[in-house]
Specification:
single chain; elongated
Length: 146
């Protein structure tokens, strides 16, 4: 079960990053190109990015509690006993990614209240962009790419 969760979390991360990058790029192009915000394209891209990010969080939280590298490592070694790589996986990765998801959720909520397209695109660009940067900053690259 652990391997299935770990592989799901890893492969879903590629999809989440791709869709989130697409949402940010779409918002930047809409904002700078002064395009209309459409329900068929712009709304759906942003919505799918948020939904996939939340799904990734759910899988990640389950993994945090069943993985030997998550809560178990903190309970066994204590916060002071974790190496930098273990601390990244057990503490920094979950904490920063939850903050990133909060930014994405705030961006989604704020964009719905704005009426003009430029404001919608700007809000999505800023908040989804911050979320994407935070995601990228705390990916355990050495473990993920092996």
């Amino acid at each position: 079960m652990y391997e299935v969760l770990l592989n799901s979390h890893s492969y879903l991360a590629y999809v989440v990053l791709a869709v989130l990058f697409l949402a940010v790029a779409n918002a930047i192009l809409g904002w700078t190109g002064k395009k209309d915000f459409t329900l068929t394209k712009d709304f759906r891209i942003s919505l799918f990015a948020m939904i996939l990010a939340h799904l990734q969080l759910l899988v990640g939280l389950i993994l945090f509690f069943v993985s030997p590298k998550g809560l178990n490592a903190i309970q066994t070694l204590g916060m002071g006993g974790l190496s930098s790589a273990a601390r990244l996986v057990a503490v920094e990765h979950p904490f920063i990614n939850i903050i990133a998801l909060v930014f994405i959720t705030i961006g989604w909520s704020k964009h719905k209240k704005i009426l003009e397209a430029k404001g919608k695109f700007k809000t999505i660009t800023i908040f989804y962009g911050l979320g994407l940067l935070l995601f990228l900053s705390r990916i355990p690259w050495t473990q993920w790419l092996n």
